[in-house]
Design a protein that fits this description.
Layout (H helix, E strand, L loop, with lengths): L1 H6 L4 H9 L3 H9 L3 H10 L2 H10 L2 H9 L3 H9 L3 H8 L4 H9 L3 H9 L3 H10 L2 H10 L2 H9 L3 H10 L3
Helix pairs in contact: 2-4, 3-5, 4-6, 6-8, 8-10, 9-11, 10-12, 11-13, 12-14
C-alpha cells in the first residue's frame, strides 16, 4: 500500500527505473493496488520482457482492465506477451474495433491459437471483425470442428465469405 501511494507521485521515467528493480510478483502485487488508468501508465514504461513477466502473474480481470486502457502499438505489444488462455480472457472485453486492430497484427497461427480458446459465439464475433484475407488465413489453420462451430453461428454474407475461403 505504501509503495502504491509512493508510485502515484513518480514520473514515467522514475516508474520505469523502479520497475527495473522489481520482480514479476512484486509488479503484480503493485498492479493489484492500481486503477486501470494507472496500470496502463505503468505499462507504458515497462520493457516487453517486464510486461510479459508481469502479465504472467496477473488475474484475467487485471489483464482485461489493462488491455481496455491501451491503444494501437502498445496494445498489440501487450497482447503478444500473453499466453493463448490469457489472450482469450483479455479479448472478451475488447470492442470489435480493438479486436480488429489486434487481429491485424497477428499471424494465422496466432489467430488459430486464439481461436482454440474461444467459444463458437466468440469465434463468430471475432470473424465479423476480420478482413477476407485474415479470415482465409485463419480458416487454413483451423480444425474441421472449429470451422463447423464457427459456421453454425454465422449468417448471410459473412457465412458466404467464410465458405469461399475454404478448400474443397
Amino acid at each position: 500500500a505504501q509503495l502504491a501511494d509512493a508510485t502515484k507521485t513518480l514520473t514515467s521515467r522514475e516508474l520505469a527505473e523502479l520497475a527495473e528493480t522489481m520482480s514479476a510478483r512484486e509488479l503484480a502485487e503493485l498492479a493489484e493496488t492500481m486503477s486501470a488508468r494507472e496500470l496502463a501508465e505503468m505499462a507504458e514504461t515497462l520493457s516487453a520482457r517486464q510486461l510479459a513477466e508481469m502479465a504472467e502473474t496477473m488475474s484475467s480481470r487485471q489483464l482485461a482492465e489493462m488491455a481496455e486502457t491501451m491503444t494501437g502499438a502498445r496494445l498489440q505489444d501487450f497482447l503478444k506477451t500473453l499466453s493463448p488462455a490469457q489472450l482469450a480472457d483479455a479479448t472478451k472485453t475488447l470492442t470489435s474495433r480493438e479486436l480488429a486492430e489486434m487481429a491485424e497484427t497477428m499471424s494465422a497461427r496466432e489467430l488459430a491459437e486464439l481461436a482454440e480458446t474461444m467459444s463458437a459465439r466468440e469465434l463468430a464475433e471475432m470473424a465479423e471483425t476480420l478482413s477476407a484475407r485474415q479470415l482465409a488465413e485463419m480458416a487454413e489453420t483451423m480444425s474441421s470442428r472449429q470451422l463447423a462451430e464457427m459456421a453454425e453461428t454465422m449468417t448471410g454474407a459473412r457465412l458466404q465469405d467464410v465458405l469461399k475461403t475454404l478448400s474443397p
